[in-house]
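Internal QA ticket QA-208
Title: Verify multi-chain structure generation after dependency bump
Assignee: T.L.

Test input:
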Amino acid sequence: MAVYTHLTAGEIAQFIARFDVGALRSAKGIAEGVSNSNWLIETERDGAAHRFILTVFEARTDAADLPFFLSLLDHLASKGQPVPRTIHTRDDANMTLVRGKPAALIEFLPGVSIDDPDEAQAHAVGVALADLHLATRDFTQTRQTSLGIPTCVGMVRDHAERLGEVDPALPDILPDCGASLLESWPEGLPGGTIHADLFPDNVLFVGEQVTGLIDFYFACTGLLAFDLAVTHAAWSFTATGNDFRPSIGRALLAGYESRRPLTQEERQALPILAQGACLRFVATRVEDWFATPADGLVRRKNPMQFAQRLAFYRDRGEAAFQS
Amino acid sequence: MAVYTHLTAGEIAQFIARFDVGALRSAKGIAEGVSNSNWLIETERDGAAHRFILTVFEARTDAADLPFFLSLLDHLASKGQPVPRTIHTRDDANMTLVRGKPAALIEFLPGVSIDDPDEAQAHAVGVALADLHLATRDFTQTRQTSLGIPTCVGMVRDHAERLGEVDPALPDILPDCGASLLESWPEGLPGGTIHADLFPDNVLFVGEQVTGLIDFYFACTGLLAFDLAVTHAAWSFTATGNDFRPSIGRALLAGYESRRPLTQEERQALPILAQGACLRFVATRVEDWFATPADGLVRRKNPMQFAQRLAFYRDRGEAAFQS
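Actual output:
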């Protein structure tokens, strides 16, 4: 949640000149995304204002993955999904370099992120996620996640001796660093292109309508029901107190199934998939916790939030996913 | 340079509803200002988009000073100066509370900040600063600065024993913590309302035209030539290398004097005023250096940048201010 790369007005103007989008009128560094640097750009052409997001991809995003991410946006946009389309340069490239770092100009979408969703909004998110899964059935590019469950177990295990420094309860929740999930991990479930990070931050609303799904920089090829489990774990708990909100979880599932009914196997797997989803966020947060320089610009997120949700799904997941 | 207060979309929508500005369409936390939290807001009314800056004033800004700052904006805007006007609530207040903190909605101005000004831009800044001084001659409110030179000397002195921790050269530049400036500080120069912080960050340009003067939250009643000295110290050195740029300094002065010629006494005082201006930024940066928690969101600015400029003005200030 910070601007990492500092660009001068001149550098931004030079970047914008590569696109047929008019003259630069404003550029504001925005506190959006934790991995990249973002600016809200305004240009003027023929007397009309146009807005874009300029993203400079920092080290955490592998440049080799960008063609996948950006092609996915264009694929979804062409199918009418509420995602920002990429703006192509005058040479028809959807990616270019700034200060030697990959950068892209993408469409600005209206809408605000919801911290405290109501049932209608949770239902709308479920619908949007299922539509995303359906709209990518003919998207042929693939990307393997770098955050598979075995990797996440290893990430937690790397800090096994120090988990208690984060919180005394953390080693009790994850005595095996999550390894038991590997034994019960489902096989043979339907796969496809998944967002894999559909937190409230990454969904824009105007009222009850989803106007934008953003930040596809963890998107990959994976289990569709895992994406639903990630979204369930990200949306269905109170921001303060971390309490499960059954009505929100139900609305999310109902919205999803209104477009893409789950198979019997997917539904049965949801409790274990949700635990895996939580482990994925525990793992990166544990790693960040010990890796973030104490004077860093990034505020560390506490791994306990998703460790507690993991414990919830382990203890009460079956009930949570009953219709 | 960070969002300090986290507001939910619901809180922002409730805030916006106090104003007759249409419905909330977008809110992005922006990395602007070091002391307050800012959002770029977009609303829609009658099919047209409108943009504003929402500022939540954090502890560093004294709430008792806000009526001065906000009235000053309205005074300057009414005189056609390029400053954002404040938006008044339906109850005609230019200030309201969010989460118990004072907050204001102000006009969004187009333009970008220049890191590396050319002579025409430096001239334009000089013109804009003089126009600001002329336009406030009939502004009757006053505010005493909390960062007068005696205070700044005291702030540096509070850390006298530890200045060498910042940089071994710092105690050599300021052996007396700046106290000698008090002996030669000029008296009887023309006073008025000054911006007191007109850094490149706080001036918006479209091309060579100044489209916005922003961030008036250090504005106060003071010496007009001190404001010019602050601006000179902030604009006339290279960002990398910290080298004096004579042509930029000359253009700034020429622009200023094209609207408000300096008196003989003011011109003679510029070298000492410029040293005082530098001391003011050394003082706050020294204080921040030792006060900023190591895990803070704020990147500390190195006091050495302005210590070196202070030394420059002490050694070569007379030559620097010759026409």
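Spot checks passed. The mean pLDDT of chain B is 93.
Status: verified.
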